[in-house]
Fold:
Amino acid sequence: MSSRVQVRFLGSGDAFGSGGRLQTSILVESNGFHALLDCGTTTLVGLKRAAIDPAKVDVILVSHLHGDHFGGIPFFVLDAQFSRRLRPLVVAGPPGLAERLRQAMEVFFPGSSRVERKFETRIVEMKTEVPTSFEALTVTPYVVRHESGAPAYALRLSIGGRVVAYSGDTEWTEALSKAAEDSDLFICEAYFYEKRIPYHLDYRTLMEHRSEIRTKRLVVTHMSADMLERLTKLEVEAASDGRVLEL
Structure:
């Protein structure tokens, strides 16, 4: 039985603030369970701008270990500590997440990774194509093509009887078709309009493979200034900061 699933784009921009947009962070909620898809450095800004209490977030899912996708976690954890969070927090992502997060916390706030907190922080390093469950949510990661010093994942979420797929950052790979198969929503990177660069997906290439992506709804995100200038030319939906989708 399906339940209401809400998807909110807290940040839909690239790493460099193109168009004044916040870095990648997407909140998926169903039946009171909240999951963050990526946590760029501006994630707390996006949550508080939307008047959403960060303490509601149950799990942070990380696609890959670049700052604009996971660099907000040290700030998130410290904010939770200072605001006296008590509920456990799960942070899940690719192998290498635990050590990279420790390093990031020590760089940003020396000593912060060793401080005793009043809430449990559990780090889960997910295995490729192995479903991992977190209460109302099941996540299956697929390896994609993006260099970050660790495996990069596309993520397939099953929640509330719906399937939400997310590309993370990647050039085209058949793994995207697998992650998005029969999904209710596929959120996909389209960094440039037609310029092809390693490890990123452009809109033209995405459209060339559109028939291979079996999804009910395709929304592009993580757009550079080049893409933002061409929004009126797109044949699919585009994300924007603060946009909310109901599934």
About this structure: The CA atoms of residues 128 and 141 lie 5 Å apart. The longest helix spans residues 97-108.
